[in-house]
DNA sequence: CCACAGTTCGAACGTTCGTTCTAATACTAC
DNA sequence: GTAGTATTAGAACGAACGTTCGAACTGTGG
């Protein structure tokens, strides 16, 4: 595991940056590879895409790739980590400008869908290859995921409290994530609405859906289903 | 491709059934293998699970497995086809007993979630390995899927018409499927509600969500989101 | 007993997998 | 030019992949 490859000490360490540019040549090259890798994983899945596929699509020799990272797993890890960090970072910035509980949920939905559709391939790789990373890679991604989940949960709890509602915020959050994340299975940019419109429609469904659950309604046995 | 293996002519043809029992020994054995395969695909994914994994978990030699089916792909195909057919068949039976448009949607949701939770592993394999089958296998599964989708779409259209509502039923169906299918990523039988309760909650969210979109409301620009 | 289909398996097939070794090239500084 | 570091690639590694082959079992009917 102790690595002596050039890739090991890069990226976060960035030894002796000869220019003060935000990105070294190494970083830019790696980013390009990550983009090609995202494409391959998107189309064939992580297990289904081989390093040789990746070599072909990125126009670099098989061995040459390993100068930039130490394993296929690390590649997936870098893709997922960068995607998650970016979407959370953007969300945080947007949430700072809005204080109304309902609008904050709408901001969450819009941010998620906008990023999802603008980076559909990376987001599919993030959603679909959810539990393939193990050990430290896996737990680090899981932490980011939990953090994102928690933000949404708190938005819902605040909304619930402000409006005097009573519903299971866990089920609500997970239903919302399901609605939103599922789009990678069906959205075609040419025929389906854009992010803003989708966010409005899903926001309507979701918000009206949870809005009706007034407190003290004792939600049990409202409408019985036959059989 | 023209197969001479024993498995080729079986199952649907079932030559010379020596007992009139519903299932021959061959069919029962194959069904057992499919069950173990479902488990493996559930845990490691289709590409990630090897035939040797399957051999170990089912307690049969690698070569012995091929007496019952001709390829790994066929195995996935059989699992997905059986799962899809069963859930559609059960749905049809249940829908015959209910005529109220809203209740019919609730029946759809309940049927889906009950089957999903009772057969969580098979349903994950169905949802997660959605586009790995190619050619005739793939298109046959795609047809079943489209059929199931269409049933739900019609339920929504009927509901919409009966209540005088106006919303995109495509987005609504796909949002609903997202909510429901996403559960394979989070549901833990020990901590989460059962199917009936989940169906009630998701049904509430979804139905109230789409119910508010009254006709002629000109749903444009209802609430603007900053940025 | 034999014949024979139904069933199982050890061993191997050829291919592809992720990864590494080593040497060759490109680039920059002197 | 030379020195030295950054970058690339050909060839090969051992392991694992899906699949097949022929021989060996098993159990029943003659």
Strand proportion of chain A, as a percent range, falls in under 5%
Percent helix range of chain A: 55-70%
Radius of gyration of chain A, in angstroms, nearest whole number: 21 Å
Structural class of chain A: mainly alpha
The tally of structural domains of chain A comes to 2
Fold-level CATH name of the largest domain in chain A: Tetracycline Repressor, domain 2
What is the fourth-level CATH superfamily of the largest domain in chain A? Tetracycline Repressor, domain 2
The 3D shape of chain A can be described as elongated
Integer average pLDDT of chain A: 89
Low-confidence stretches of chain A: 11-20, 217-227
Seen as an oligomer or otherwise, the chain set is homodimer
Distance between the termini of chain A: 57 Å
Q: Main sheet of chain A, how many strands, which sense, barrel?
A: none
Q: Any guess at the CATH architecture of the largest domain in chain A?
A: Orthogonal Bundle
